[in-house]
Design goal:
With 93 residues, this protein is an all-alpha fold. The chain has a domain of 55 residues. It has 2 helices and no strands. The longest helix is centred in the first third of the chain and has 25 residues. The termini are far apart.
Length: 93
């Protein structure tokens, strides 16, 4: 599979996830209101999110990407800091 088709597939999956998420948000009922979607439709949506995630993971593996990476802002504080360790001078015997 060419790099162009992989990136296109990744874009398609990203759009699918976004649109499906927006549909879920917009159809989420307020407390006390019955939900507009049937139980089967809710299960199908969960399955679809799972399939999208599986395919994204496969594409990341094929591309050699680390799936644990998360986006971060440039001004975000770092979680780990390098520290210099000073050893005391040796005592003469």
């Amino acid at each position: 599979m060419g790099i162009e088709s992989v990136s296109k597939e990744r874009r398609i999956l990203r759009v699918l996830r976004t649109v499906l998420g927006n549909i879920v948000k917009e159809t989420a009922p307020r407390p006390g209101v019955p939900r507009p979607l049937s139980d089967q439709t809710v299960a199908d949506i969960r399955d679809l999110f799972g399939l999208i995630a599986e395919r994204e993971a496969e594409l990341a593996d094929e591309a050699g990407l680390n799936r644990k990476e998360r986006p971060h802002f440039a001004d975000e504080p770092r979680r780990a800091h390098a520290m210099k360790i000073h050893r005391p001078p040796k005592k003469p015997n």
